[in-house]
Amino acid sequence: MATTALIPNTSVLIKKGIRLLLQVVAALFLASVAWVLIYRWVAPPATWLMLDRRAHAPVGLGYYGIQQEPRLIRYQFRNLDEVAPAVPLALVAAEDQRFLIHHGFDFDALASAAKRNWKGDGTHIVGGSTISQQVAKNVFLWHGRSYVRKAAEAYFTVLIEFMWNKRRIMEMYLSVAEMGDCTFGVEAASQRYFGKSASRLSPAEAALLAGVLPNPLRFRASNPGPAARAKQLRVLRNMRRLGGTTYVNTLINK
């Protein structure tokens, strides 16, 4: 009898546990939707990576320009019409040339990156993330690598593609992308490396900044080395192939 009496109690506990789990999932979903919706119009005060960089200096072989204490974050949010037209064009040319036509994920780029990584020796990992994925990672997620974080990145990518337009995604990217130690966004990078506003950047300068994005702690925008210069030239060629200002006008009107 005692064993039989426990069965209904166990069943009730399971049902309560499932109900609680569903409530937690629903709360997290609504909170994430509200968070993304707010950033549709409001600039982020900071990102998790900014806070991490503020607290800890990055350590790695070949890193340059590491700021000593006090570690002050350089960050100024800019709308698309507050930067030179070459800036969004250079970012797309360097990072995601299908930006205007995909819906958050470029499966061709992912397949190509996976193939190159499979054939490589493992010392240089090629990424296939789109600008949308990088915004999801940079704005909403913590710094690090894990399957949980990758799943969260995919989730937030879907949300921002659904709730934002391409213009807003680009504004967020050009404002929060890391472009040097404690330096986030093209405005802060332009002020630090060229001593002028991002609204006055030339195509060559925009291409140089975009070219360091794969690893802004190793590639130098100030006093660039041969690798950074080679990447700059590739970005400039891609900018011309994309159609220059015609492409930018398409992006602005999205």
Automatic annotation (TrEMBL):
Top-level lineage group: Bacteria
Record flagged with keyword Membrane: yes
A GO biological process of this protein is: regulation of cell shape
**EC number(s) per UniProt?**
2.4.99.28
Record localization: Cell membrane
Q: What's a single GO MF annotation on this record?
A: pentosyltransferase activity
Q: In which pathway does it act?
A: Cell wall biogenesis; peptidoglycan biosynthesis
Instruction: Report the InterPro entries cross-referenced here.
Output: Glyco_trans_51, Lysozyme-like_dom_sf, PBP_transglycosylase, Pep_trsgly
Cellular component GO terms held in the UniProt record? peptidoglycan-based cell wall; plasma membrane
- Answer whether the UniProt record assigns the keyword Oxidoreductase to this protein: no
- What family does this belong to? Belongs to the glycosyltransferase 51 family.
Q: Which PANTHER family match?
A: BIOSYNTHETIC PEPTIDOGLYCAN TRANSGLYCOSYLASE (PTHR30400:SF0), MONOFUNCTIONAL BIOSYNTHETIC PEPTIDOGLYCAN TRANSGLYCOSYLASE (PTHR30400)
HAMAP family, A to Z: PGT_MtgA
Q: Tell me the protein's name.
A: Biosynthetic peptidoglycan transglycosylase
Q: Which organism is it from?
A: Hymenobacter sedentarius
Gene transcribed to yield this protein = mtgA
